[in-house]
Amino acid sequence: MGFWKSLFSGSDTTPSSKPTAVEGYIAEDENSLPTEAPRDPSLSSSAARSRSSSRIFFSTDRDIDLYELEELCDAVGWSRRPLRKVKKAIQHSFLVVTMWEQRGVQRRLIGFARATSDHAFNATLWDVVVHPDFQGKGFGKALMKHVIKKLRSEDISNITLFADPQVVNFYQNLGFMADPEGIKGMFWYPD
Amino acid sequence: MGFWKSLFSGSDTTPSSKPTAVEGYIAEDENSLPTEAPRDPSLSSSAARSRSSSRIFFSTDRDIDLYELEELCDAVGWSRRPLRKVKKAIQHSFLVVTMWEQRGVQRRLIGFARATSDHAFNATLWDVVVHPDFQGKGFGKALMKHVIKKLRSEDISNITLFADPQVVNFYQNLGFMADPEGIKGMFWYPD
Questions:
Q1: Distance (Å) from the alpha carbon of A94 to chain B's nearest alpha carbon
Q2: What is the pLDDT of residue A52?
Q3: By the 8 A CB rule, do B17 and B127 touch?
Q4: Cα separation, B165 vs A179, whole angstroms
Q5: What keyword terms does UniProt attach to this protein (chains A, B) (predicted)?
Q6: Is the distance from CB of A37 to CB of A55 less than 8 angstroms?
Q7: B11, B87, B122, B186: which to substitute to probe chain A, counting the most A Cβ within 10 Å?
């Protein structure tokens, strides 16, 4: 993330476009209803038992504990951002999706994504993040499929994002195209 | 624009990201106040007299005649979009900037740009267009400088856009970077 740090040195200007690599497969989500988490054969038997008793669900509720979100972003190594600005960004996003693991009455925030939009043609994804404990198991793919479904249901046809090099393949597998017809993603850099 | 046409075949889904090539220089704008248009030595003497009596100004007023905007977009060859969706997109954009030529009491829409944003960190530019009569004379640069200044005044630090290949240089000259640190602009493409 050296580019971002050098480009925006102020603490207020830490960027929000930092997709996190996730791959694999999860059962189709059920519109924010609880769904069985996929078994992971690499887990120990006790961990597998524990994991199998948890559920994963999605929400578009924006009443998010900002400290919990910050903890999630800390876990993937993002620079901290002022919570008042994070709150403002969430308020003014077109779509906010959170992904949760539920065990009994306990809920844990394990994924997040949001999109800005003109409500008509375009949406742009920002802050796509999955907790490292849940990466590589299909949760990121499930999160993104949920986001795409929500945007499509709002008649948004042009879904865009800016992907770090290491997650370009992840997004390509979801149907995103890099630089279609030579169209370039560009970032403003002050003189 | 073949990519767009093939990617989004429905009339409702014509894309809105079509920057138009403009280069050159114009005197600094004065916050939407009338400003003398630059003389163009290539104009005939009568045309130069006529042009010299016109003024260029910028506005952020969203009460735009949609048919006039459609005429501007027609002039650069963009596919038509449903005006109800254009209206909605303008309503839900964070910033809308129009560029006008004024001659006496007559005003002519000669440029347009808008940005979506989370009001905190990021803005993304869409529909940057300058009428062909005014391309190559610095008007596009002036429009973009006005847009950047407005976004910066709102504390937006990360200004992004998706540029067609033929306008990448134009935006680079304004301080935009293509694919910084390998970050890729990506577009969702349905399976």
A1: 8
A2: 58
A3: yes
A4: 10
A5: Acyltransferase, Transferase
A6: yes
A7: B186
Higher pLDDT, A19 or A75: A75
**In total, how many domains does chain A have?**
1
SS3 content of chain B, % helix, strand, coil (to 5): 35, 30, 40
Average pLDDT taken over every residue of chain B: 81
- Residue at A130 is within a domain: yes
Q: Is the dihedral of CA B129, B9, B169, A15 positive or negative?
A: positive
Domain range for residue A56?
Answer: 16-166
CA angle (A101 as vertex; A97, A107 as ends), nearest 5: 95
The verdict on whether B171 is a catalytic residue reads yes
Q: What average pLDDT does this structure show over B19-27?
A: 35
Q: Is B95 part of any domain? A: yes
Structural domain contains residue A179:
no
> What are the pLDDT digits (tens) for A39-97?
444 444 444 445 558 999 999 999 999 999 999 999 999 999 999 999 999 999 999 99
DSSP string for residues in B91-122? HT-SEEEEEEEEETTEEEEEEEEEEEE-SSSE
